[in-house]
Amino acid sequence: MSNNSVKKLLEERARLLAELGTLSRLLRGSWVERYSVCSRSDCKCRRGERHGPRHYLVVNEGGHQRQKYVQNSRAQAAQEGLAEYRRLQVIVARITCINLALMKEDDYATL
Ligand SMILES: [Zn+2]
Predict the structure, then answer these.
(1) Which of 27, 45, 62, 67 can bridge 81 by disulfide, Cβ–Cβ 3.0-4.6 Å?
(2) Is 38 helix (H, G, I), strand (E, B) or coil?
(3) How far does residue 98's CA lie from ligand 1's centre (Å)?
(4) Average pLDDT of 45-68?
C-alpha cells in the first residue's frame, strides 16, 4: 500500500475513534411498544381502545433478557441511544476493515 493510502486509513481510523467517544448515551437492546388491557371491566380498553403504548427496552443482563420500562418522556432519548449503538457497530466493522488492511504493512505494530 502507498504511504498516502496508509495515511488516509490512519486518518479515517482516528476520526472513527474520536466519534466513538461521542456515543455516550448508547443503549444495546431492542425496542418494544406494548398496549394493554386493565382490570376495570367497564373501561374502553375492553372495547378495543387499549392503553398505551408503553415502551420497553429489552436488554441482555448476564445472559438473561430483561424488559426495562421506559417513561414516555425518555422514549426519544432511548431510541437515540439505540441508534448510537447501531452506529457503534458500523464504526467497529469499519475499523476492523482498516486494521486488516493495515496489518499487511511491515510496520503494523507502530501504526
Ligand atoms: Zn382500561
Answers:
(1) 27
(2) coil
(3) 54
(4) 95
CA atoms lying within 13 Å on the CB side of residue 75: 12
**Residue 5 pLDDT grade (very low, low, confident, very high; cuts 50, 70, 90):** very high
Integer CA distances (angstroms), 33 to 46, 51, 77, 83, in order: 19, 11, 15, 17
* pTM metric for this prediction: 0.84
What is the Rg, in whole angstroms, of the alpha carbon atoms belonging to the chain? 22
Q: What is the DSSP letter of 74?
A: G
Between the CA of 54 and the centroid of ligand 1 the distance, in Å, is: 13
Instruction: State the total domains in the chain.
Output: 1
pLDDT at 109 (0 to 100): 85
